[in-house]
Amino acid sequence: MTTSSYLVAFDEAHKPRAKISGNYSELKEHLESMGFVCQTFMEFPITRQNLSAFDLLVIPCPDFAKFSTNEIDAIAQWVKEDGGGLLCLSHAGGDKGRRSNLSELVEKFGFSYENDQVLDYTKNFGLENLPEITNFTPPHPITEGITSLCFRAGCSLSTLGLNVVPVAISNEESEPFSTPLVVTAEVQEGRVVGIGSYEMFRNEIPGGFQHAGHKEFCTNIFNWLKTDYREKIKTGEIEPKINIQEISHNIGDISSSPLSPSGIPQSKLNLSSRIIISDKSDLAALFYGLLEEITVLKDQVQNIINTILSSEEQILETQKKIDEPIPFEPSPLPELELKLEPEPNLLTEMPERPKSMTKPKKKPTSKPSKKEEPDDEQLPLTKEEIAAELETLKNKLNSIENLRDLVDSKYKNGSYTKEQYNKQTERLNNDLNRTLSRIKELEMTYKKKE
Known about the structure:
Blueprint: E1 6-11, H1 25-33, E2 36-41, H2 48-51, E3 56-60, H3 69-82, E4 85-89, H4 94-98, H5 102-106, E5 111-113, E6 132-133, E7 149-150, E8 157-159, E9 164-169, E10 180-187, E11 190-195, H6 214-224, H7 228-235, H8 280-309, H9 318-323, H10 383-412, H11 418-449
Parallel strand pairs: 1-2, 1-3, 3-4, 4-11
Antiparallel strand pairs: 5-8, 6-7, 9-10, 10-11
Helix pairs in contact: 10-11
């Protein structure tokens, strides 16, 4: 391994929907052909120390897993002070659909993921949830040479900081329209890219990694994420702020660990190492970290058990099912016939739709029931989840106001006809009413829980 190799960590400690040993293997092969070295990153909790050996970190859509406050602070510090390059990818439904808190992390860099799905009924690749993106403004290195992308099953983003640059925008006929889909941010020594669709880089699916333009888009992203600061460390021009030899007590010495097949030193749990505890807070922090590790392990074991129990007739396929993304049955579309035979060499799996966009199924009942049992897909929200959604919806209100101002200005300067103006205004008013209604509903629910 040469000193110029850039090391890329793919986080798998937070149950991502994409893995380089599975549905991101084509992406991995492409990166390695470019000279990057990719490795599965299973360290938990994530710390600035165990990230210090890596140049880039990819978080490919965490699913039913959340980052702790300490992990969020550690990643932000690694990006800002150690010159790390961070790529975060989400999915239709955003944090609420995935039951994650990826937005809490990326808000450190000035943007967040919305609880929606980007649809386009006129400009798409055969289905409305495969919209074609052609609006790349302003010009940016990651979209250089790109004329079209398929934004497969993705959510939109909101920008919260002046340092954030939207580089791919939804079409004016999309829902939501003229909204950021891909953003970049430069923060101190580091760089960040946020994308609302992790499926753009998946293997063997329509609109995935093999789609025209996606491979070049990937090349641009990862080359841009290589920061000048990390390059100076590699050439010896500056010294790293954290010495790789001084990894925290629960990680083995990375300089003397055996090499993985990809050439990266493998860290390992070192229970026999000497632990220095100066006061009670150090002891509490140690046990807190152990508890978090136990929680993650418990969730992973429970997922395996659930998979086995739900596959009694196909036990031999259990491992295959675990490695693949969690299947999701999309809402039936009127133009599709389920009896059609799939075309040769074409995977016909449909992108998942967020639960918030599908109508709940009515249960057939022969007798009127005073109290229906709750649907598994509509579990009651906790106070924390309600508060988080309220915060997101209030941010959305600001976005709607900004979009209304944009529509007004486009109508005044002649960019919109009267018909276009009325159509966009009607959409925004409907969106505003739905948002206000949901806020009122959540506030009433929150009061009942107090």
